[in-house]
Amino acid sequence: MRHRRLLASGHCFSRSPMDAMKSRHSPLSTLRSPLLVLALLLAGCPRSDSVNEPSPSKRPLDGVKLRLAVVNDPALATAIGRLRGEWNAQTGSSLEVIETAENDIARRDSLPADAVVCPSHLLGTLAERKLLAPVPPDVVRSSQWAGLFELLKVREAAWGRETLAVPFGSPVFCCYYRADLLEKLGRRPPQTWADYQDLSALLARRKPSGVKAWCGTIEPLVPGWAGLTLLARATPAMKHRDNYSALFNIETMEPLIAGPPVVDALEQLVATVKAGPAEPLAYDPAAARAAFWRGECAMALTWPTAARGERGEGRGERADGKAASKTQGLAASAASSPADKSQKPEPKLPATLPAKVDPKIRVGFAELPGSRRVYSLSSRGWETRSEDDDPRVPLLDISGRLGVVSAKSAHTEAAFQLLLWLSDDRNSPQVSAASPATTLFRQSNMRSPMAWVEKPVGPTAAVKYADATEAAFRHEQWVGALRMPGRTEYLAALDEAVASAVRGEKSPLEALLDADAKWRKITDRLGLERQKAAYRHSLGLE
């Protein structure tokens, strides 16, 4: 048991968790001071005299039964299940871990458990239905909370002006690049999307000897990811420092996706695809990552993961709860049911890393490019960013996991203690790193980045990835990827726009005008005022 290991280490505290709780006049079943008890459990131990070691009857949550549901993430559920015994030994609380599906959550009037670990984008849907308990203020003021990456704690965990979730890790797209090839060319990783386009074209012409399939770059453009990739490209030009709005007008809910920044981004994407693979619409993040390690491209937009045999997930994750890793993976499941049923599904591409990676491949990591040009909604024109205006604007909520607590739980504070314990400095590398939908998210994770990346990355590059990820969550401006009701439908319309433009069926402007019309219909059907309130909440307003 962990308290015995802490005892051997020589740490101690002057009173037991039971004594601490009695001093606050709190019954065991409600646990009025979770952070105090949590600090005692994580940072200290009983008096060094083993005679005074607390008996099971003195454990702070003795007799409390908690239920935790994990949504669409079998690997994460398994990792949490392995810690049930340790949780019970430390707290006296029993823990039941169940798996559930996103559409099951959507049908319920209340959460199916005391706590739920779910895709990050679900926060808005659950919050708008008033199903969640707020995170206690003492948690938000704690040192453990302070150790989270900045945008995770102040943006992704928040809804409106309330903090409603405990972060478990949320990746953003990064740029994999062949550091060995860039060094030979005397080039740096791309700083802007224009740089990226030029570099991909140059690298496409520098095919390494002995390589059959080769291209400059691969981006995730399967259904479920194409719209997210487009938004990630567009956000630096969309997000002017004087405007809250990026995707909708916050007063009218008029879509902004057919405006100049997104049209420009789609035009650049279509041009870049010419230096891409033969089947550009067939890759999800996992397939793009695997293609990079097979030596088929010089750059790729994805993120690393140490999770084995799993595909990253996002908007296209199966709502029926059947794990993509147990079938053909996300790309396969998404391609098997495209938004337009008349379209031929894209080919299914492997996501498994090669058994042996060419030793000449040396990976580098960089944040996604930024933009010195930014569109102002106020002046309805392009501007050049000032030198002190950050050109990079990350797209949040493309994937990730958050822990939330049911507003109807009989053990609200104990449930928050559980989520904090599972995501803390010690347990997060065991729990969150098991899921392909997460990445490192705490300052302490920076000390062990190899826990979060695939083996071919290597220690030096892993440190660079950690630095790039932490930097992405420090930017002043950001855009959330539609973490609100209707997200799936809105993004499906963008998927179709990207596909039609890439195939040459429509111009980027025509494709995005079609998506704009679909967004308006989705908003009207779901209720304009409700959607406006949800969008404003997603921005931290009201």
If you had to describe this structure to a student in words, what would you say it looks like?
With 542 residues, this protein is α/β, with parallel strands linked by helices. The chain has 22 helices and 15 strands. It has helices at 2-9, 17-23, 34-43, 74-81, 84-91, 102-107, 122-128, 137-140, 143-146, 150-156, 179-185, 193-204, 226-238, 260-273, 285-293, 329-335, 412-422, 428-431, 459-472, 487-502, 508-526, 528-538; strands spanning 65-71, 94-100, 115-119, 158-159, 162-163, 166-167, 174-178, 215-218, 297-302, 363-367, 373-376, 381-384, 395-396, 401-405, 479-480. The strands form 5 sheets. A 5-stranded mixed beta sheet has the order 2-1-3-14-6, sandwiched between helices. The chain has a 4-stranded mixed beta sheet with strand order 8-9-7-10. Helix 3 runs parallel beside helix 17 and helix 12 packs parallel to helix 14 (260-273). The protein is globular, with a radius of gyration of 24 Å.
User: Could you give the count of β-strands?
Assistant: 15
- The N- and C-terminal alpha carbons lie at a distance of 46 Å
Beta-strand percent range: 5-15%
Gross morphology: globular
Helix-residue proportion = 25-40%
